[in-house]
User: What shape does this take?
Amino acid sequence: MGVNGPAVWVRVEGKGNFLNSGSLKEFAQEMVNRGYREFVVDLEHCAMMDSTFMGTLAAVALRLREIGQGHLHVVHCGPRSRDLLSGLGLDQIFDIQSNGAAAPECEEVKNHADAEAKKKETTVTMLEAHEALCNAAPENLSRFKDVLEYLKQDLHQTTTGK
Assistant: This one.
């Protein structure tokens, strides 16, 4: 993750999943707070994505839409990843390209995210990501109804200690 000129670049190495979604969420929030509005996510070396990760991308794109400026661009997106993103209606809220410029040398930006995210933070990220998927395309609610219910119950148990 880094910055090159006006754009924030994120290169996904390996898996884009619930384990690194919290870090992505915090990084994107910090970059938006610093005034960045263009985000490029490079999936060239991404082996797979889970729904939490895709929902986190959706949340970033929806936040930019809410602000009224900026875009999220996904580059080097293979056919499988494109099918996953399009199947969730995310091609309606951000650009998806099978090619694109390689991630440039970027200025390192210190990421304050704790590498070992606490269970509650991870659950909140997963819940917000799945809610974003449902906000992006209402038909996703039927796909993720059980996941949302489970995460809400899990979060309630974590918060109340029951």
User: Anything to note?
Assistant: The radius of gyration is 15 Å. Helices lie at 18-33, 51-67, 79-87, 119-136, 140-160.
